[in-house]
Amino acid sequence: MAKLTPKALNKKPLNPLLSTPILVYLALILSLLLILFLSQQHLSQFSFPFSSPDANDLTLFRRATTHTTTHIFTLIKPKPKIAFLFLTNSNLTFAPLWEKFFVGNNHLFNIYVHADPTTYVASPGGVFQNRFIPSKPTKRYSPSLIAAARRLLASALLDDPLNQYFALISQRCIPLFSFQFIYNYLFKNQLKSFANSSEFNLLYPSYIEILSEAENLNIRYNARGENVMMPEVPFEDFRVGSQFFILNRKHTKVVLRDQKLWNKFQIPCTNKYYCYPEEHYFSTLLSMEDLKGCTGFTLTRVNWTGAVYGHPHLYTPAEVSPELFRQLRVSNWSYSYLFARKFSPECLAPLMNIADDVIFRD
User: Looking at the chain, which terminus has fewer C-beta neighbours within 10 angstroms, N or C?
Assistant: First the structure.
């Protein structure tokens, strides 16, 4: 046995945490965590836009609802994002206003555009560049607008796991506040019962209008024929609501997984003048599936005074003023209006003139 000398006895043992192999190992772990974090923050899970125009919608929806990702959200809590889903059949006239709205917040939102392929829609560039998804024709008085909204929801669900809110926006819709105001408003209202959830998929309330009473509701229910909606959709479960909404991630998956109600709403209407599938499908489905998880109200202000053939009041340049925005922001409910429609394309110039001093000054 080797004899221990006084010099050997006085030598301090090497700290294992300072040994070279341990340092290399820790460095590799930290590097991996950093790469994973950056990939969640900046990279899509799939190559955008995920599918060709001829792809089967059911295949897209199945991918969106069954795909799972491995997250490090328990170690690093990235901020959730809002997916803005633009549904249009003409050019995005108000793109400059939205560009000003989004500036400086790239890490908090994603954009997806469904443009009717039968109408040429030029990309406005900027934040909208390369954000057009494969689209199919849309037509009023048909379920095609529901299908378009579902394609937008599926694309956003696949694209980024940080998308937690999905806001459907029309081509004639504008924001009423700054991006930060809207972002903070949505994410401060997390449902308390899920506040301690261990998953990043926190459940926030969905803002969708759900009305059980409306003018001509019985005629709308039978627009496809007498009792055609039975037995899947009894009249007492039939609901009406705004075409535009803000859904949470859970309800987005509910919409994409549904086939039972979708089969009914795909049936062509025999009375097209009372056929508004996009105003019934989402409200009816979510009312039946998870009414408590929905506010029952829309956050998009619409003026139905003098409505013609289902179209709301169209604001003109002469009406655009600071006073108009003060009126549009007023809500009789416990929820604030965050968006407003419907504005004529000629309103862009006067809207841009008051954007900094009125619209985005909360």
Answer: N
Instruction: Give the whole-angstrom CA distance, residue 311 versus residue 303.
Output: 10
CA geometry: angle 150, 153, 157, nearest 5 deg: 140
Do 295 and 207 form a contact (C-beta atoms < 8 A)? yes
State both tokens at 359. Answer: 């619209």
Q: What is the Cα–Cα distance from 351 to 100, expressed in whole angstroms?
A: 11
> How many Cα atoms occupy the beta-carbon half-sphere of 260 within 13 Å?
11
> Can you read off the two tokens belonging to residue 272?
């097209």
Residue 11 DSSP code: S
Sign of CA dihedral 13, 19, 25, 26: positive
Predicted confidence (pLDDT) per residue in 261-298, tens digit: 999 999 999 998 899 999 999 999 999 999 999 999 99
Helix axes 144-159, 281-290, angle to 10 degrees: 60
CA distance 308 to 75: 54
List of residues 6+ apart from 228 with CB closer than 8 A: 222, 264, 267
174-to-101, 272, 316 alpha-carbon distances in Å: 10, 29, 13
Q: For the segment 311-333, what is each residue's pLDDT rounded down to a tens digit? A: 899 999 999 999 999 999 999 88
The CATH architecture of the domain made up of 53-359 is Alpha-Beta Complex (3.90)
* CA separation for the pair 341, 167 (Å, rounded): 14
